[in-house]
Amino acid sequence: MTARQAYESLVAHSRESADLGAALSLLSWDQQVMLPPAAHPGRAAQIGALTAILHRRATDPRLGEWLAACEADAPREPGTPEAANIREWRRDFDLAVKIPEDLAVALARAASAGQRAWEFARKENDFKAFAPHLQELLELSRRKAEAIGYAGEAYDALLDTYEPGETAASVAPILAELRDASKALLEAVKDAPAPKPLPAGPYPVAAQQALLADITSLLGLPPDASRLDVSAHPFSTLIGPGDARITVRYDAADFTKALFGAVHETGHALYSLGHDSGDGRHGTPMGEFASLGVHESQSRLWENQVARSLPFWEHVLPLAVARFPALSGLSPEELFAAVSAIRPGLIRVDADETTYNPHIVLRFELELALVRGDLAVADLPGAWNEKSREILGLAAPRDAEGCLQDVHWSMGAFGYFPTYSLGNVYAACLFEAARAALPGLDAAMAAGSFRPLLDWLRANIHEKGRLSRPRDLIAAATGESPTAGPLIRHLQAKAKAVYGL
Fold it and tell me: Would residue 139 show up in a list of annotated catalytic residues for this protein?
């Protein structure tokens, strides 16, 4: 077999697996959005069966033979799509063969059952009902880390599956810098007058749905290539080309929760839809996201740098007033200040920009202790509140607002949380660079034109797929290695605009 034939075999195999993966994504979406309660055990079995098929395909010995044939060929020019595909296929294959099929299936089934148990436990504020599922997922995740292998500690193996190249030691200083910057800003504004809050609801859900349809379309999400639904925990998933699904949850007392949730998930969906530029990348690494941190950078950029900006509300406020007459007395400046206020709270997904990263520090330190074995699952609620007081200055009155508020651990997603703060960092770096490259960006957004920003992101991030490692991808787009500096500058400028610091 020639190297060209081997490469074409890899492409065909990869695309077939991507189609099967799309079916698995559809099953998971359906489980969280549409599935009747009695169907959950059957769905767990279905997910497990399809996971087993995909794992067998990911570890097919022919992949190793095809990769060896490609790698033995004359070296391809570094940085080309073909070279990136071969490099990433090798990474994926080497990782997959380390994980036994029975472990992969056990994790998938435990995650399916864990999500259902978490939904019940969160609703009923019953951590004890969820604890056995969390214990099983933790033990399976430790087994996964041992199977993968690591140079530092088990947590590094788990984190690397979400954010290639990162370790606990590499992300800890960034998180500490963001925590300290947040603490300094909280101290700076503590005596400043608080911005005027938004009028009290109710904000009818039907009106919120109509407004979200207007805004997601305005940002560039094609209505004929997407769906907006409701789930216990907002999420975005790409079922396949031209099929992006996003979900939110509504609060009749505060329309901004669903609005920012929808904008956040729209950012994810735009990134997912933007991978395939029509040149055959679908089903290959070049048609996939670079990392979860990069994925999060897209959602956070649209949510924070765009939707929490004054130019955004200069255009969107009239649309909101048309749905909610109670807002008619507000100016864009007042609404901008209201949604940009620093208000420490217990719920991560509702956190303002300044206090969001300390929420990640809290989760990172707790899951690191769980994986290390320094914290027992039974002691998690108490440890959560102790660390929450230390980091956020708040303690949850109920576990539903504490250690049960996030879906991630019910999925076995240990090592996922740091990608959120990395996403915040990358988002600020990218938006700062986009502003420099697009001098009229603020004016365009105020006029309701978000296409220039989307086009810039498409060219510099979306269409790059897995061409580069995450930090290298951001550096190529911005001209410098990513640091927390742009994010801290953004937060300081926001506090100055809102509080007059």
Answer: no
